[in-house]
Amino acid sequence: MSEKSISCSRCDACCCRLEVMLISDTGVPTYLVETTQWGGQVMARLDDDWCAALDRNTMLCSIYEKRPQICRDFEMGSFECVTERMATHQY
């Protein structure tokens, strides 16, 4: 698979379906943060199990400039990206 075949614009946002733990103060708006039963903080998810910050019309992050570090580290075409795409059969 070539890097050119990987594009967020042709993705069903599989990375936005992963649980995102918030380890430190990230600047994420509080309405997008949930507390787990163990007291940890995570990005909120909607009933469809996708991240609440994902704009469903554009499939883009609505808080891109304030997104958590883990989201910043999950780069397009990275090992994690490719692994998630393969798991959701996007190739």
Give structural notes.
There is one protein chain. The protein has a 3-stranded antiparallel sheet, with no helix packed on it. The protein has a two-stranded antiparallel ribbon with strand order 4-5. The longest helix is centred in the C-terminal third of the chain and has 9 residues, at 79-87. The protein is an alpha+beta fold. The protein has helices spanning 69-73, 79-87; strands at 21-22, 33-35, 41-43, 54-55, 60-61. It has one domain. Strand 4 (54-55) and strand 5 form a beta hairpin. It is globular.
Provide a quick synopsis of the model.
This protein is 15% helix and 13% strand. With 91 residues, it is an alpha+beta fold.
Strands, helices and their partners?
Blueprint: E1 21-22, E2 33-35, E3 41-43, E4 54-55, E5 60-61, H1 69-73, H2 79-87
Antiparallel strand pairs: 1-3, 2-3, 4-5
